[in-house]
Each structure stands twice: as structure tokens, then as C-alpha cells.
Amino acid sequence: MLNAQEISDVYQDIAAEVEHAIIGKPGLIKNIIAAILAGGHILLEDYPGLGKTILSKSIAKATGLRFSRIQFTPDLLPADITGSYVYNRIENKFEFRMGPIFSNIILADEINRASPKTQSALLEAMQERQVTVDGRTKELTEPFVVIATQNPIEYEGTFPLPEAQLDRFLVKLGVGYPDLVQEVEILERRRKRQQDMVDIINITDVEKIIQMRQVVENVYVEKDIDKYIVEIVHSTRDNRKVLVGASPRGSLSLMKISRAYAALEGREFVIPDDVKRFIKPTLAHRIILVPELWMHPNAEMEILDQIINSITVPIFNN
């Protein structure tokens, strides 16, 4: 059985390998690995060309998880995701041909370009870890993680994700632009390797990731930390600027990813800073603001900042 320090060591090796492809984003890589170990799904929302796809592929390769990419388009059908039954003329029977969703990490690229009918094909998979095709239920492989991307500036021909689907993402993260020095290094590395692809080696495998998840499940959370999490989530429901606050799933998400992050830090217990790190990534996409703030940029972040400052942080003695 692994311990938290061993998980931290494995994470360091994974991060070092992924950073061969992604420069200057150690915090983002750590947040994504934490979400994977917490058993959650990730929504990456940022501008085109910032490396969302190569980031997802590199993490899948380094962790040894099977990867599938689905390009979401308006004409994509649910069967294109889940698979379907096809008639086998030789054996005179219908057989199931699995779709790309039967992998460990699914990159749902530009998820908001697909119709609501197609988007709904992911709802059962993301929550129940199964799909139903022609009335028959098929279990998905574990671990199962959806990394979805969407462009925040392009709205024509898109279908905004319904709140029920947004709520199924453990965290919503951004990539961000590299600074000048980092972008120069991107050019230098591309010139030296003489190809677009970056060779990433496997650091772990499926069995090791499952073992790491089991360790995360045993990370200790004090009752005062539980209370701190719940007070933050409850404050989103009582805020006059928030029309609909975060649900109990928000509390659970914040607890789960805080435990995973603590394990990556080599600790077997959660501290308040672990929680504070993920308040915005786990709650910003779960709250609906009053209509007059819909066009106000970063309103969710400002409200969460006010909530964070208004809640007393528990004193932690280790």
C-alpha cells in the first residue's frame, strides 16, 4: 500500500515528464493531477492555441492512462460517443462496438459546439460511470476522467453547457498565456526536437493510479475543516448577488480535491490552505449570479473573494 509521501514522489516524476511538453504551468499540472486522483472531471476554458490538447495528451501518456479525443461538432451524434450495436452478417447477430468514451481519459474538445442531445450523452457517463445503449447498460473503465475544453470568446454556433452538466465537473481551470521567457523557450525546444510532437514516457499505469486514489480516500479531514468547507458553500446560497448557490456536490468536490492535493504534497491530512486553493476552481462554475451581473467580467471571482475573506479560517495544529 502506498503512502502520501510515495504519491508525492510519483507526482514529481509525472510533472517533470509533462513539463517536457508544457512549459511554465506547474500549478495547472498539479491541479489536474489532483482532480484525476480525486476522481473528478475537468473543464478547461481558455483561448485557442494555449496547449489544452497537448496538456491533456501528455498527462494521459505520463500517467499510463488510455486516451481518447472526441472533437465535438454540431453534427456529432450520441452514438459517436457511446458506440452502438452493429449487425454482424457472418455470425447473424448484433454486436456492440465501443465508442471513444471507453477510455480512461476522454478529451471532449470544444464540448460546447455539440447539440444538447449529444452533450447529454456525457451526463450519465460522468456521473454514473456507465452508458446505456439500446436499453443495455455498459460499465466504463476505471479510472474514467473527462477533460473538456471550450473557447470563452466564440459563441456563434455553440450550445452553452446546462447547469446540470457544469455541476458534474469537479473543477474549472484556465491555462493562461506564457510569459516572454517561457514563450522563447517554447520556440527553442521546438527547434531542437525538429518535430511538433513531444515524446512522453509512461511514469505510472492504471493500477498505480487506482492505488493512489485509494490513498487519497484515507487522507484525514478534521471536523473543523469540514465545517469551513460547508460554511463557504452555504455562503454562496445566502449572498444577495447570487441567484443560485452551490449544491452539496460543491462541498463534496471541494473536500475531495483538497484531500488529493494534500496527498500530492506528501501529507496524510488536509490543511486550510488546501481548501482555499480550490474554492474558486470548484465553486465559480457552480453559482448563478443575479441577471444584472451576467455581463460583469470576473463577478463570480469577486464574490468568492468576498466570501473567503468573510469566513473564519480554522486554526490547524499539526
Protein architecture, described:
It is a single chain. The protein is an alpha/beta fold and 318 residues long. The protein has 2 domains: 26-193, P-loop containing nucleotide triphosphate hydrolases (Rossmann fold, 3-Layer(aba) Sandwich), CATH 3.40.50.300; 219-318, Orthogonal Bundle (Helicase, Ruva Protein, domain 3), CATH 1.10.8. Helices cover 45% and strands 16% of the residues. It has helices at residues 4-18, 26-37, 52-63, 78-82, 116-128, 163-166, 180-193, 206-216, 223-238, 248-264, 272-283, 299-310, and strands spanning 41-45, 67-71, 83-88, 93-98, 105-109, 130-133, 136-139, 145-150, 169-173, 242-244, 288-289. It has a 5-stranded parallel beta sheet. Strand 3 (83-88) and strand 4 (93-98) form a beta hairpin. The longest helix is centred in the last third of the chain and has 17 residues, at 248-264. The model has no long low-confidence stretch (mean pLDDT 91).
